[in-house]
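My main concern about presentation is that the manuscript never shows what a single data entry looks like. The format is easy to grasp once an entry is in front of the reader. For illustration, here is how one protein appears when written out as sequence plus structure tokens:
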Amino acid sequence: MDENEKSDVLDEEAKDTQETAEDEDEEDEDSGEKARISFTDFIEIVESTLITIFVIVMIFTYLLHPVNIVGHSMYPTLNNYPDDKSSDKVFMSTVYFGIDYGDILVIDNHETHLIDENGQAYVPDDVTPLNECIIKRVIATGGQTIDIKDNQVIVDGEVLEEPYIATGSTTYDLGAFDGQYPFTVPEGYYFVMGDNRNHSSDSRDAKVGLVSESQVYGKAIVRYSPIERFHILTNSWKESAND
């Protein structure tokens, strides 16, 4: 092999070596780019996860609270079961705009309010409240006049149609406002009753009486458990719970 042939072989080998080095550099660049993309994807996934967790925490801290229903005072709207072994679970909202007739409220019964001779609400010294969390339906709000007679509930002179109460229920006075009907509910207070009228301690009972705004934990919005009984509760006052 002459000098020219040797030179050509060396040039070819050098060229091959250079191309191999360039290929390796390109592979290294591709690997680096993939690593950067993977890290960016990882950061985006972490950010999305943290945002999702934050939103969920905010919702369940300030908007929705799970409440386990105990007892049958709101039967058949809630806890429509033949035994005491099962119970409904509802989401209560602490963020709402006003409280109206038919709303279902979760209430802190740490005190009771009755009406004096001037129609003003007061806390009686001789009555011990239930001192527990209760759930009831709003029947009358501040400024409305309520009367209970002849198994009827009368608000502002009109008899209420109450499709939500339990079949066979009898609405009678339980003594809290004996001799005071009809009376006007003071502003900032609510007259509440359970749907199971024969088995409900509510505003008719001196242990509950009128409920002040400060006693309201929130509104029951939806029954989410058991899932087969999922139901929006905001319009339940329009519905017959006995169906």
Remarks:
- Confidence is low (pLDDT under 50) at residues 5-10, 18-24.
- Helices lie at 3-63.
- The chain has two domains: 1-65, 69-238.
